[in-house]
Design a protein that fits this description.
about 450 residues; five-stranded mixed β-sheet; five-stranded antiparallel β-sheet; 12 strands
């Protein structure tokens, strides 16, 4: 089986992974030598239950005329899902594991497609170029121009692309960002040994082997930690989570609040990073080879916290127990499209019925709804048709879909974090605030006017 990379990017209607949608998808498939094999671009129509974010519209600048000509979401997700699940595919992008991958996971889920198979089935896997780039910046900086904004290092793709002339075209256009990501990968891969080693972090077996060799003290490396911290956090290993078997737990050691911890304040004064296998953040030994970026103040804070933990073994034991036993809270009345993590995996018979649904004609899809004994799947099947093919819905299903749209307006549709689905009223208020700042270009002003008209349609 030939392994390939699928470099990809999405532009979305907003940041809510449950209720927003992808509007633009682009991908370039390459061989492992990064030679281009094929390209894909998909423009996607707005769903009737999507409430676009004004900020997102200003970033990607997709017009409503463009979005009217796009493919319906259901067909687009089936196409993207097939690309991701092509045997031997390694999906990779810039900060895709931080956003895009999970966003598409929920998109697959609400369209009755398997949300996880691209991570493991058919020799498929995932990578992320962002933490790899961070590691090059820290430990192999030659060969790349590292941009600064207001004297501070920035590793945003658009700035890296501009400084290193990675791609033409506007930033936040999906294909332009994919071209830039691929060009950056080619630039980094010139250091073959470094590239090969860092790719190993996204291989589960290799990542586990490296984890087993680490002492309890380590450095986490991740772009989210910020340039002022040199993208690093010193941590202490607490072991594996007792309930989420793919998580190792790492206590932050440079927190000034750690020494304030009592048996009653653990949730407020301690912070633990959950490291999943073959995902960021990346782990390094806390040794002289890698800790050169730690300031004297941070070293003193780390040493003081370690000393405090050693002198307070009972509190430390309770810290370990608390974080190993912690479970994500269940959200009551969570919307079905947001319940991916709460509902668990489908049974084989349910997966088979979803496959029948995908292969069926539209009239057959309507008939198949009756066979969904899983109430969540039944609701999602009705929504798939309501969003994408409303003309085929019989009156009872159409009314059910209309009731769902009315629930969005009423503010009772919530996600797994307890956040309410965005409303058109909220969007109009945000548009007014943005327009009153007076800092908009003519194009940006027109985009917001289009959005304002859409919300009042």
């Amino acid at each position: 089986m030939q392994k390939t990379y699928l470099f990809y990017d999405i532009e979305t209607s907003g940041l809510n992974k449950c209720f927003d949608q992808a509007l633009q998808f682009a991908a370039i498939r390459t061989d492992l030598e990064l030679n281009e094999l094929e390209r894909h671009e998909v423009l996607i129509k707005l769903n009737p239950d999507t409430v676009p974010s004004p900020q997102a519209i200003l970033v990607h600048q997709l017009t409503f005329e463009q979005l009217k000509t796009g493919m319906c979401e259901y067909e687009a997700m089936r196409e993207i899902h097939q690309l991701f699940n092509t045997p031997g595919t390694i999906t990779v992008g810039y900060n895709t594991l931080g956003f895009d991958d999970e966003f598409l996971r929920f998109s697959f889920y609400r369209n009755l497609l398997t949300p996880y198979t691209h991570q493991y089935a058919n020799n498929c896997s995932r990578m992320d170029l962002y933490p790899i780039t961070v590691m090059y910046y820290l430990f192999k900086p030659d060969g790349v121009i590292w941009p600064k904004i207001a004297e501070k290092t920035t590793l945003k793709l658009e700035h890296l692309s501009s400084c290193n002339k990675l791609a033409n075209g506007r930033a936040h256009d999906a294909m332009a960002d994919v071209v830039a990501t691929l060009a950056l990968a080619r630039l980094l891969r010139q250091e073959r040994e470094m590239w090969g080693y860092l790719c190993g972090y996204f291989d589960k077996k290799t990542d586990l082997e490296r984890l087993a060799k680490l002492t309890s003290h380590a450095l986490l490396v991740d772009g989210s930690f910020g340039a002022e911290k040199f993208y690093q956090r010193p941590v202490l290993g607490l072991g594996m989570h007792n309930h989420y078997k793919n998580q190792s737990l790492w206590l932050q050691l440079d927190s000034p609040r750690l020494v304030e911890t009592t048996l009653d304040s653990i949730s407020k004064t301690t912070f633990v990073y959950r490291k999943r296998f073959a995902e960021q953040p990346l782990l390094l030994p806390l040794s002289q080879r890698f800790d050169k970026y730690l300031s004297d103040d941070r070293r003193e804070l780390i040493a003081g916290n370690i000393d405090w933990l050693q002198k307070n073994p009972q509190v430390f034991s309770e810290i370990v127990c608390y974080h190993k036993e912690y479970k994500y809270p269940e959200i009551l009345n969570i919307d079905v499209d947001a319940a991916l993590y709460q509902n668990g995996f489908l049974k084989d018979t349910e997966l088979e019925l979803c496959n029948y649904f995908h292969l069926a004609s539209l009239p057959e899809k309507v008939e198949l709804i009756k066979r969904f004994t899983n109430s969540n799947l039944r609701v999602q099947a009705i929504r798939v048709l309501g969003r994408n093919y409303p003309e085929v819905l019989p009156d009872n299903y159409r009314q059910e879909f209309i009731n769902y749209l009315n629930n969005i307006k009423s503010g009772v549709v919530i996600d797994y974090r307890g956040l309410v689905h965005a409303s058109f009223e909220g969007v109009l208020a945000e548009i007014k605030q943005l327009q009153e700042t007076g800092n908009l270009s003519a194009m940006q002003f027109n985009l917001l006017e289009e959005l304002s008209k859409y919300t009042q349609f």
